[in-house]
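Pilot study result, target chain (299 residues):
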Amino acid sequence: LLMLVLFPIFWALPISEMIAELASARPAEGGPYIWARDTLGEFWGWQVGFWSTASTWLQQALYVVLIVGYAGKFFPMSNTTAWIVKLGVIAIFTIINLLGIEEVSKVSTVLSICVIAGFTVVTIVGLVNWNHNPIEPFMNPEEGLVGNLGGSICIAIWMFCGYESMSVMAGEYEDPQVIPRGLILAMPLIALSYFLPTLAGLASVDGWENWAVEGTGAVGYMDVLITYIGPAAGLAFLVIAILSNCSIFNAYILSGSRGFFVMADDHLFPHFMVKLSKNRKVPAVSILAMAGFTILLCQ
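Predicted structure:
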């Protein structure tokens, strides 16, 4: 909980301010890659462009696996069925991205509203049923100071990253100034969406040591609703968990497909990645390549 207060201030806020300032001064397709290339040269531009894009490509399979994993709690699936569902998820969001940035934004907006609504309900129900001290113990006594700091810092860095993704598509925005305006709203909303449900969950459901994603006796945000509203509310939140990962997957196809596309246009990546679709003018080859790469990794 302490890290969820400190990291938005000392980590996320400086990064989001940097992205807002640079995106306002130099709005361009490729975002950080362009900024590094123009100021530090092609070598460092390539490093920034390649590693930031590669990290997005490498993590995409994670969200597909989580989507299918959560869905498996509704409908138990064989390995073959799960594989088919993974292919379906990848196909659906690849098609949405091939349709264009406007279609991606509409889907992302609807999914984000659903996710925010779900966590708002968890927060309200948890705070209303405050029965436990959420900061007792202050840290896990079995892990020690170093173990607690290491674990919480790793999670907090993961939570508060990705702000640069907004700037990667800046060349396609009608008004690039939407980036700083968006970050002004997004940064505090993201911080609160992590802190408040966690506070409410720990305060309302006992057993902090059992909070986990999976495993026997694992406790999570869903249990707040199951405990105080009923099983149906818990299942509804499971849908929210699926939609949350769908939203991230959808948005990261958009930003991840632009990185190598822009680098290819500068002859710093295989040139076939620069191919645009005829009708929608989106980097279709890059999007399809990303989909194929995700299919390989999600096994």
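One observation from the pilot: The mean pLDDT is 91. A full batch analysis is planned for the follow-on phase.
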